[in-house]
Specification:
The complex is a heterodimer of chains A (276) and B (262). Chain A is α/β, with parallel strands linked by helices. Chain A is built from 9 helices and 10 strands. In chain A, a hairpin with a 2-residue loop joins β4 and β5. Chain B is flat. Classes of the chains: A alpha/beta (276), B mainly alpha (262).
């Protein structure tokens, strides 16, 4: 499968928002139990138009961190800023794609109406037009009248992507978006994401447990520690663009990044470098 | 599988058998009635005759249609209120507060409540519709409330992530998400509404199928009673048939998702 992922030259990066985490911490207090600190203290900045991945050992609180960053959950300590403004609820120009697409699409709504469900305050005529446009951009223009459960997993995730871009976001957060699809579908969804990020110029934060995916997609990879999680290292990925599923992954430097990140996750003590 | 000329498909055969069994039962009833085995079992023909007289005579407009109208009105009102209360109480986590009260109210038999309500309010149509609505409310409410407490958190989070407010979540998300359970409750409510209709017309009534039944009983008009019961049975059967159609239409997304449609 030959594929070229183009990042449109001269994209207006100013469309992307900056997302800043300042000492974000989160602890839970289970009833009758001892409080659990999921996130220690995480600080970093997602710059305008940048593509950053968060990787870390399983159970390190990646998803919790993403929920804090999005404003769905309030951090116990620290602050999140979206273009300098403190986040207290999900900002209007931020979209989120969840891991379990099957559980984030409304089964009683058609695909088109699912996309429109993400557009509060938009008149239905305009909403329908934007939904169709978004469905075309994700490559499923003819499925607007279908129900989500009539589509394959990969296509359902495309619907979730369409809903995310229909809002014309300036920042996209993705929580393990491709974890439950097969390898080929995953590749095409990765390409789609890179193409959309390039064309629309939004900033992207991807949470993933897949190190290869993180390297392939990102401008920068943040490696998280075990819980209570903090940023161990920020690794700029200096691989040429456009990225190519076959050629990029075959590069010596790709292998080098992979080995470095693997070692860091296995042996966090040895890797304590500076955070971003 | 090929079916030879002149042979009958198994489904059609089964349907024919069902009809045949029904006809045999009716014939047995007719024979037993004619033989006079009991003064309380009139021949089938007398019961059908009484029912026919009711349907073709002035009683259609005076008793049958008003009864059916009240049953339908009460059923619809009860179901809608049951869904509304179920969604609000279930999703609003008010369960712990109201549960003991509601559990008690729910277990009160409608037969016991009906006379009190009829004495307390004017014994007119509106009060009877209210009694039917109250009886129909419970199965829908209990099911909806239960489902509303367990709506997938991820769906609600998605709605919040895209800036949907509380009322959208309540009525456009929790509402449809609980619909399959609400409809299952409404199926029960359909038969309960017929029961409540008859009971509501036993007291302080001057018309209606329940009134008719009780009037015939006082005069030992057994054929008349059987006629009214036949009509009630037919109304119940038609309502449950209509309900199947309604369910397939309103839950087409759910049945399709579960692979339950042909």
């Amino acid at each position: 499968m030959k594929s070229n992922v183009r990042s449109t030259p001269g994209v207006d990066r100013a469309n992307g928002a900056t997302l800043t985490a300042e000492g974000v911490a989160k602890s839970y207090h289970p009833r009758g139990g001892r409080s659990v600190q999921a996130i220690g203290s995480v600080s970093f900045e997602l710059r305008a138009g940048e593509f950053v991945s968060l990787v870390g050992p399983s159970g390190c609180g990646k998803t919790t961190l993403l929920r804090c960053l999005s404003g769905l959950v309030t951090p116990s300590d620290g602050a999140v800023r979206f273009d300098g403004e403190t986040v207290s609820k999900v900002p209007g120009s931020m979209s989120i794609v969840f891991q379990e697409y099957g559980r984030s699409l409304f089964p009683w709504l058609s695909v088109e109406r699912n996309v429109m469900a993400g557009l509060p305050g938009v008149r239905s005529g305009e909403g329908r037009r934007r939904a169709r446009e978004a469905l075309e951009m994700v490559g499923i223009p003819d499925f607007g009248d279908s129900y989500p459960w009539q589509l394959s997993g990969g296509m359902q995730q495309r619907v979730a992507m369409a809903r995310a871009i229909a809002t014309r976001p300036r920042c996209l957060l993705m929580d393990e978006p491709f974890a439950s699809v097969d390898a080929l579908t995953r590749e095409s969804l990765e390409e789609l994401t890179l193409r959309l990020a390039g064309e629309l110029g939004f900033s992207t934060l991807l949470v993933t447990h897949d190190i290869d995916e993180a390297i392939f997609m990102s401008d920068r990879v943040l490696v998280l520690s075990n819980r209570p999680s903090r940023v161990l290292r920020s690794i700029p990925i200096e691989l040429p663009k456009p990225r190519d599923e076959v050629a990029t992954r075959a590069m010596g430097r790709f292998q080098h990044y992979r080995a470095e990140i693997h070692a860091m996750i296995r042996n966090p003590e040895g890797a304590a470098g500076g955070a971003a | 599988m090929t079916v030879g000329r002149g042979s009958v498909s198994p489904q059609a055969l089964r349907r024919v058998l069902g009809v045949v069994a029904g006809i045999v039962l009716l014939a047995l009833w007719q024979i037993a009635g004619k033989a006079g085995i009991s003064p309380y079992l009139p021949p089938m023909s007398d019961a059908v005759g009484a029912a026919w007289d009711m349907v073709t005579g002035p009683q259609l407009k005076a008793d049958i249609l008003p009864s059916v109208g009240r049953a339908l009105a009460g059923l619809i009102i009860g179901c809608l209120l049951g869904m509304l209360a179920g969604v609000v109480i279930g999703y609003g986590r008010l369960h712990e507060w109201v549960r003991p009260t509601l559990e008690f109210l729910r277990s009160l038999p409608i037969v016991a409540i009906a006379p009190v309500v009829l004495i307390a309010f004017t014994p007119g149509s509106a009060t009877r519709v209210g009694i039917i609505a109250l009886a129909s409310f419970w199965p829908v409410f209990v099911n909806t409330e239960d489902a509303a407490r367990s709506v997938d958190e991820r769906l609600i989070e998605t709605a919040r992530a895209y800036g949907r407010n509380r009322s959208w979540i309540l009525f456009r998300l929790v509402g449809p998400a609980t619909l399959p359970m609400a409809v299952a409750g409404a199926r029960i409510a359909t038969s309960v509404s017929l029961l409540a209709m008859v009971v509501s017309e036993f007291f302080l009534a001057t018309s209606g199928l329940g009134y008719q039944l009780q009037y015939d009983a006082r005069g030992y008009d057994v054929a008349g009673m059987f006629g009214a019961i036949l009509i009630l049975g037919i109304i119940g059967r038609v309502m449950s048939g209509a309900f199947n159609g309604f369910e397939h239409w309103v839950l087409r997304w759910y049945l399709g998702q579960k692979g339950l449609t042909q």
